[in-house]
Structure formats: C-alpha cells, structure tokens
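Private note to self, pasted from the team thread so I don't lose it. Backbone tokens:
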C-alpha cells in the first residue's frame, strides 16, 4: 500500500485533533529505515550527531558538510516521516543571506523537508525570511545546546517569572514569523504546557513534560548508546550497548578458538572443478618429480 508522507500540515492537523506527534533523531540509513518503518512521524537529523556519532564534546564543532552528509543518508532510508535537518552552529548566525543559502542546501541537496534553528525572538526575522523563501522552519527554544557557553552549561531554562515571560514571547514571535513547529527543550512542565496551549502550531518536547503536542528523544539515548549517565527526561527502551558488547565478545571468542567461520559458512568448489583441480595437482606433482629426477641424474 502506498504510504502517505507526513507533512507540516499533517503535524498541524495532529495537534488540533489531539493526536500525539512522535519524533526521534536519526543519523544514518539503517536507523532511519527502522525509525520510519516504526511509524515515527518526524525524524530530526540533529546536530546531536556531533556527540552521539562523531564523538565531539558538544554540538558546536559540527559542520554544514557533516550535517548534509548525514541528512542525505537518512533521507535515503525514509518514505513516510517528516524530515527535519538541524542547522549547525555558525551556519545561520552571521547573516540572513548566508543562513538562507545554507538552509536551501538542506532542502535542495539532501532531501530535508524543513530545517531547525535554535533561538527565540531574535531569530524571528530569519524564520520570516526562510518562510518567504519556501523553506519550512522548526524553531527550538528553552535549553538550546548551541548556547552552551552563554548558558554556562546545560541547565533547565525558564525558571523565573521573567524568563518564563520571555519564553512565551519567543514562542509567539516564532509562530508569527511562520515556524511550522517549536521544539521545547529543558523547561518546566508547567511552562511547556502553557506554551502548548497558547500556540496554534505544534510543540515537540524534550525534557519539557508530557503536555507538549509531541515528544522527541535522541536515538542513542533511547538505546543506551551514549556512554554517559542519561538526563532525567531520558527513558531507556533497550540496552543496545549491552547487546553489542555480548555479540562482540562472542565474535572475538569464536575467531580466537577457530569456531568461526564454520564449514557451512565457507564457499566450496563444485564437484566438477574439485575433480579437475585434483587431476591438475597430480599432474603438476608428477611433472615436478620427473624434473627432480632429471636434475639429480645430471648432478
Ligand atoms: O540535535 C538534537 O538532537 C536536537 C534535539 C535534542 C531536539 O536538537
């Protein structure tokens, strides 16, 4: 049966029908296929790829080329989900023109349906420019990992009345500018619930409680592949690290004890070629024996 792709309009309809939006990150072809086939509505190629896959300390070093490379791989594995590519740090900060050029590359060269940018009201002008250029934008407010130095670490945001009011203003400005959805990260549940009820566009929460229109997690957090203690909001659904470690141990042991590969896991000659080879070997052996006899006779 043909699949009906999820669009920004689908997400909007889901919000207004009270249907929870499911979202997850993915960074490569096989996991993108699995996530898509599981029926997840939105796949984010997050710049968290820098930490989860590339081993960086933060998301800051991630480049445009790295994001495009991973977005292309994910796009090749997805048939249904709405694909959002994260714009990396520095790719939308220096000028609107450069931001627009970079955002266009995600849509044109990598198969993304939308881009995501971090920041509140001060990004509203950029969201408007991108929307005018037919590029759908997902906004991201609250704990924005690209602001790690300005925030002095990864801390829950919007905890004072002033900060809460400022977050409400951020969400309103981004919505008015044309954002198709807003990621709410690392904020109190009560604040996320209020933003969600004030916004007509969907909110997707991560560490923002259950009252958002949808939820997103980082793929590697879900599967215990992040090698660090998880944040409070992470629920581990499987222990892939343990699963891989057991299999790797078994593989190393099988190779060391010569129990891998078995005969059944080996290729074999056909009977015909095996017989020809045996005759050929016999002839070669006879020939080399007669040359040895000849050499010995001359000596
Ligand atoms: O990069 C990422 O994975 C994200 C999510 C945490 C929303 O921005």
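Design output:
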């Amino acid at each position: 049966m043909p699949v009906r792709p999820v669009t920004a309009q689908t997400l909007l309809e889901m919000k207004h029908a009270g249907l929870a939006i499911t979202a997850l990150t993915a960074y490569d072809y096989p996991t993108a296929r699995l996530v898509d086939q599981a029926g997840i509505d939105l796949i984010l190629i997050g710049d968290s790829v820098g930490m989860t896959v590339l081993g960086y300390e933060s998301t800051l070093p991630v480049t445009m080329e790295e994001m495009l490379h991973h977005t292309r791989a994910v796009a090749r594995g997805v048939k249904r989900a709405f694909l959002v590519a994260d714009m990396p740090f520095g790719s939308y900060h220096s000028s609107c023109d450069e931001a627009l050029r970079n955002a266009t590359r995600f849509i044109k060269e990598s198969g993304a349906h939308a881009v995501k940018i971090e920041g509140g009201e001060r990004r509203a002008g950029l969201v408007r420019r991108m929307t005018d250029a037919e590029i759908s934008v997902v906004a991201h407010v609250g704990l924005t990992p690209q602001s790690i130095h300005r925030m002095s670490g990864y801390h829950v945001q919007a905890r004072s009345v002033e900060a809460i009011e400022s977050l409400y203003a951020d969400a309103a400005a981004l919505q008015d500018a044309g954002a198709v959805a807003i990621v709410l990260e690392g904020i109190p549940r009560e604040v996320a619930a209020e933003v969600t009820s004030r916004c007509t566009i969907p909110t997707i929460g991560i560490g923002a409680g259950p009252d958002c229109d949808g939820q997103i997690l980082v793929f590697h957090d879900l599967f215990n592949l992040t090698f660090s203690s998880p944040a409070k909001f992470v629920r581990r659904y499987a222990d892939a690290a343990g699963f891989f470690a057991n299999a790797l141990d078994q593989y190393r042991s099988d190779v060391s004890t010569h129990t891998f590969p078995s005969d059944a896991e080996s290729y074999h000659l056909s009977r015909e070629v095996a017989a020809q080879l045996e005759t050929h070997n016999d002839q070669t052996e006879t020939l080399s024996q007669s040359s040895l006899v000849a050499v010995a006779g001359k000596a």
